[in-house]
Amino acid sequence: MRIAVLVYGRLNACAEHHANIVESLGQPVDFFLSSDNAPAPFLQSFLRLYNPIAYTNAPIHYDADLGRYPGKRHETVIDSMTRHFINKNRVVSLLEKSSIPYDCVVSLRVDSFFNEKFNFDDLRDNTIYIPHGCDFVSHAINDQLAYGKMDVMKKYNSINPILLLERKLSIPHPESLTYANIVYHQLKVQRVPLNYVLIRRL
User: First and final CA of the chain: distance in angstroms?
Assistant: First the structure.
C-alpha cells in the first residue's frame, strides 16, 4: 500500500514527534507539507527528518474575513482557523501536482502524539476515517486528523469555508466547517478508536 501523509500547520514539535509518527503509521510513507512562515530551525528539522515529496512554507496572505459571518463562538480564533484551512488546501494541491496514485492519504498535525498504530485495512469508497473525540459542539467533527482513499481526502482537504458560510451550512467554527464540508461532499464518516493527544513541545 502506498500512503501519503499531508502535514499542515505548525512545525514546533516535528523533531520530537518524528519517531512516534513514523512508528504509528507502521509502514513507509511519503510526506507533503504546507506550513506558513515556520521558523528556519523547525523547517530544516522537518525537511531533514521527513524528507517531503513537496512542501511550501510561504507566508499566508488573505483578504476574506470569516468572522463577519454569524454564529461565531467565543473560543474561535478566526486568523488561526483561516490559516488552518488555507494550509489544508495548499498541501492537497501539492499532492495533486505529484501525480502519484496513492492508495491512502492521511491528514495530520505533527504535534500529534499517538498511543497506538493506524489501521489502514479495508478502506471503503467514499468513506473518511476520523478518530473519536474532539468534536466539541453539535454538528461538528474532529478536524485534527483524518484518512481515507485519495479521492475522498482531496475533497476533505479542499474545503471552501466561504462557500459553506455563504450557503449557511455552518457557523465560522473549524470543527463545524469541517463537518459541513463532509456533508457537502456526501462523504460517509467512520469513527475510529485511534488514541492520540496534541503536544506542541515535549
Answer: 31
**CB neighbours of 20 closer than 8 A, spacing ≥ 6?**
113, 114
Closest by Cα among 92, 76, 62 to 175: 76
**For residue 40, how far is the Cα from the chain centroid?**
22
pLDDT digits (tens, 9 = 90+) for 158-181: 999 999 999 999 999 999 999 999
Q: Residue 45: which H helix or E strand, with range?
A: helix 40-50
Residue of 187, 181, 178 whose CA lies nearest to 127? 187
State the pLDDT at residue 201: 62
Cell numbers linked to 30: 511519503
Instruction: Tell me the CATH architecture of domain 3-63+77-158+189-198.
Output: Alpha-Beta Complex (3.90)
What gap in Å lies between CA 40 and CA 187, rounded to an integer?
38
For the segment 23-53, what is each residue's pLDDT rounded down to a tens digit? 999 999 999 999 999 999 999 999 999 999 9
Specify the 3-state DSSP secondary structure of 77.
coil
Residue ranges for the chain with pLDDT beneath 70 = 201-202
Would you list the domain boundaries of the chain?
A: 3-63+77-158+189-198
Contact 26, 117 (CB under 8 A): yes
